[in-house]
Amino acid sequence: MKRILLVSLLAISTISLAQETKNKNLDPDVCFYYGVGINANNAYKIDDKLVANNFPRTVKTMPELFFGINYLGKDFSIDTELATATFKKSNAKSRSSGTAIAFKLRGHYNIVNQSRFMFSGGLNLDYTMNDFSLSATDNQVDLNNLGSSTSSYIRLHNKMFYVGPSIAFSLKKKDRVAVRLNIGYEFALASSKWRSEYAEVTNSFSENGHNKFMVGLVFYSNRHCK
Predict the structure, then answer these.
(1) Tens-digit pLDDT profile for the chain (226 aa)?
(2) Burial category of 115 from C-beta neighbours within 10 Å (exposed 0-12, middle 13-18, buried 19 and up)
(3) Which of 9, 95, 98, 116 is the residue whose CA sits 20 to 30 A from 20?
(4) Neighbours of 203 (CB within 10 A)
């Protein structure tokens, strides 16, 4: 239910901001974009539990891939974006891996909007779903006697809602954005507790207060602009 409410909030906010942008900018350009970036995370609270049980801690710096739709008017810019980031880490006895999928809404005011350059700033909203897997490296599986197999595998997930400021530097070609650099910092205002689809999790906790710094390089597909 919380997931549905958060996604609905992002959708409603997107529609509202898009309508506001259209009213103020009359006829905004609508373009698809894609890009690559890096998330520099603060330590997760779960890292202490992982280290205490001889699992590798999560990776603080994670590469990110994303694509989205940009609504660009004279004074305002709005992004709706889907992003994913992954990590893998191992030691002599175990390994940790994770995937984060994020739905983002970014609203910016165009502080400088010239024919070849644009500088903007505003706010990010980010709904992220984390999926972490933990396993031992000495697992043994006997297909002739599965009952005697030994396996240590744990899979955990949570959901987090971030808010934070961001800025963007854009280079334009023929009055349309061609390349953009996004920089942002987000604070986790809400987080569900760690849960599992395969086991009952006791002594669970949330990741409220987790922060992350983001840098992303955006490329516009101007031939698909409207």
Answers:
(1) 455 445 455 555 555 555 554 454 457 889 999 999 999 999 999 999 999 988 999 999 999 999 999 999 989 999 999 999 999 998 888 999 999 999 999 999 999 999 899 999 999 999 999 999 998 887 777 788 777 666 778 899 999 999 999 999 999 988 889 999 999 999 999 999 999 998 899 999 999 989 999 999 999 986 657 7
(2) exposed
(3) 116
(4) 7
